[in-house]
Every structure is written in C-alpha cells, then in structure tokens.
Amino acid sequence: MGERVNPIADLRYAATVPPVPAAATRASGALHDRRGRPLRDLRISVTDRCNFRCTYCMPKELFGASYAFLPQASLLSFEEITRTARLFVAHGVHKLRLTGGEPLLRKNVEQLIAQLAALRTPEGKPLDITLTTNGSLLARKAQALKDSGLQRVTVSLDALDDAVFRRMNDVDFPVAQVLEGIHVAQRVGLAPIKINMVVKKGTNDHEIVPLARHVREHFGPGVVLRFIEYMDVGASNGWRMDEVLPSAEVVARLDRAFGLQPLAAHTLGETAKRHAYRDGGGEIGVISSVTQAFCGDCNRARLSTEGKLFLCLFANQGHDLRALLRGQRDGRPYTDEDIAAAIGLVWAQREDRYSELRTQQTPAAQPGQPRVEMHYIGG
Ligand code: SF4
C-alpha cells in the first residue's frame, strides 16, 4: 500500500503564544488548574523521530520515508529545555519524564539528563527523573544514562513472542534486543524499571499472561509490568472501541493465572492501578484511560519537541513557549519571571478531561482532524 498523503504535519504549528502578564509575579509552587489539580509532572519530548513504526502510534503508511520530521533548528536546545524545566519546577513540578518519539535517538541526551539532574525543587530536593524508551538502544546506553543522573526507566514492550513484537513495531526489530536492554538497565542499577504493554484486542492480548510470566521468572519483583488500554491518541491509528480490552479483563486473566490483590496508589495522580501477586512475586499495573478515566487528579503537562506546551494527551491546541524563550518584549528578552508567569496563567485556565468526556459515542479523530500525535508530545 503506497504512502498516504499526510495531513498531520501542519498540526505541529497549531499553537498560540501565551500572554505574559504585565507585572509578572514569582512562581509560588502552589499552582492549581480550574479543577483544583496541581502541576506536578512534566513530560518532555526531546525528539519527534523514532526507529520503530508502532501501528498504534506512528503507522508506516503515514510516517514513511517522505515524512518531514522537525528540522534540528526548530527543536529546543538542551539549555532551553533545562531553563523551561526549571520554571516548571518553580511551579511545583517534581517529576520529569523524557519521551519522544524515541528519546535515545536524540544525540547526547545524557548531557540533557545531567543538566536536569542538577535542578532542585524549591525545598532543595532532587527531582524524580525518568525516561520512556522502546528499548532498542537501551543495552548500549544504560550505563551512560545512569552515570548522567537518570534514576529509573520505562520500557515499551508490546509482546514476548518475537513475530508478534516485530509485527507491532513494524520495522522487524527483534524482541531479544529489548529484553537484553532491560537486563542491562537492571545490572547498571536503574530502578525501578517499568515495562509498558499497550494491549490491542485481537492483536496482542494473548501475550498478556506469557509476558507477565516472563517478567516474573526472568526479571523478578524489581520490574513492574503495566498494561495500557489501547487509546484513541492522535488522528492516525484508526482507533476502534472494539479493539480495546478493558483493564478489568486484563486483571481477571492475570488473577486466574497467578493470583492478584489490589494495592494502594504510591502518589496522587498516579496513572496506573496497582495489583500485587499474592505469592510475593512483585506487582503489575493497569492504565485504563478508556474504561476508568483518571482525569480527576491529572497533574501532567507535556512539552513538545519544539517547545509547545500541551495540557492533555488528547489536546488539539498548544501554547508556544519557544516564542517566549527566543522572543523579546520592548526590545529585551523575556525574563524567567515573565515565562513562569505565562506558564502559570496557562495552567490556571486548564479544564482538560478528555478521557472523562470520551464515551462510546465519541468518534475517533480522523486524519486531518486536529489532535496532537503521541510521537510528537510523548505518551
Ligand atoms: S485525558 Fe487528558 S486530562 Fe485526562 S488524564 Fe489524560 S492527559 Fe490528563
């Protein structure tokens, strides 16, 4: 099947420059949105490129050889990312997640991690810094990531069976290399390690129990396997509700196979519902954006590769922070206070709760309809 015309490219430019209050006040760390949700978690996409073509995220027929990825000059530099992160930390963020595309494709990403690892919360505490990767480069990079200050890592792994895995990443990448990457990450001391499996009914749901068994037997309790309900992110994956396997069914299958009991959340705003193996063999998580929406305490903001702030994974409009990072007012560059105040205003007006609003009737976004793509702002 030839490459389809890609209507998505121009969406990257759908953003407004956030207003900067005349008298910018210092960030207080006590920022809340219109639903009383604090700002605690910033997901930073460091590249829109990926070496996989997962069918539910970057289908090959849309993201083929002629797809125009963002030019280097339009990406935020490491210094711009670190400055922006510092301003979010002043507003109360204490968790940073590096995403992509595939973040390990960004050259010298370790240097960025070292810069971010030097940041401190207003109370002087280090930040919780993690990264989501497809694991393809993890075996090679794990030690350098650890040495640069990364504490833990999340690896996307949608199947144990090599043929199923290769079909889902659609670049014929072998599962063995990702499994090896997880072993190396464990050896160098990245912990805890989380494995995320997107469950697509009829495609890989038969892999739920085999992958859980493999993680229990080969990685042990230090590695937490999470199952993500297949979501209607972006406008290119042809999402259908009948391909969603509800998390309740995932839990039922694992309970029959291994025996599970519910666990309390670690923190407010945690996306996964936790369940422990009754035999002490560790725990699993389910992330149920479709059947059990968790917008009520969603404290996550997302920064795109070229500096656009998105307030929801399903947003269709961004806020252009790069314009402030690189722009001027009255002939002088915007100060940290200016940009922090602009961020504060944007968050204070936030009302997003797409997953709560999504129902059986909500039509999936069609190509050309504005909905930001996951590979552009990270999961
Ligand atoms: S749908 Fe949007 S508001 Fe709801 S949990 Fe996801 S990112 Fe947060």
Please characterize this protein's 3D structure.
The structure is a single chain. With 379 residues, the chain is an alpha/beta fold. It has one domain (15-377): TIM Barrel (Alpha-Beta Barrel), CATH 3.20.20. Helix content is 27%, strand content 17%. It has eleven helices and 15 strands. It has helices spanning 78-90, 109-117, 138-148, 162-169, 175-188, 208-218, 247-258, 322-326, 336-348, 354-357, 374-377; strands spanning 15-16, 41-45, 95-99, 128-133, 153-156, 193-199, 223-229, 260-262, 273-277, 283-287, 300-303, 308-310, 318-320, 328-329, 332-333. Strands 1-13-12-11-2-3-4-5-6-7-10-9-8 form a 13-stranded mixed β-sheet. A two-stranded antiparallel sheet has the order 14-15. The chain starts with 14 loop residues before the first strand and ends with a helix. Residues 1-11 have low confidence and may be disordered. Residues 289, 294-295, 298, 300, 312-314, 352-355 line the site of iron/sulfur cluster.
Task: Summarize this structure as a short list of keywords or feature phrases.
about 15% strand; TIM Barrel; 13-stranded mixed beta sheet; binds iron/sulfur cluster; disordered N terminus; about 375 residues; single chain; about 25% helix; alpha/beta; two-stranded antiparallel ribbon
How many distinct folded domains?
1
N to C succession of SSEs = EEHEHEHEHHEHEHEEEEEEHEEHHH
Hey, roughly how much beta strand do the residues contain? 15-25%
CATH T-level topology: TIM Barrel
Rg over CA atoms: 20 Å
CATH architecture: Alpha-Beta Barrel
Summarize the amount of helix as a percent range. 25-40%
Number of helices: 11
User: How would you name the CATH homologous superfamily?
Assistant: Aldolase class I
Number of DSSP E strands = 15
Main β-sheet, in a few words?
A: 13 strands, mixed
What is the typical, i.e. mean, pLDDT? Answer: 92
Shape field: globular
- Which regions have little confidence, pLDDT < 50, spanning 5+ residues? 1-11
Pairing-aware structural class of the strands and helices? alpha/beta
> How are the strands of the largest sheet arranged?
1-13-12-11-2-3-4-5-6-7-10-9-8
CATH hierarchy, class? Alpha Beta
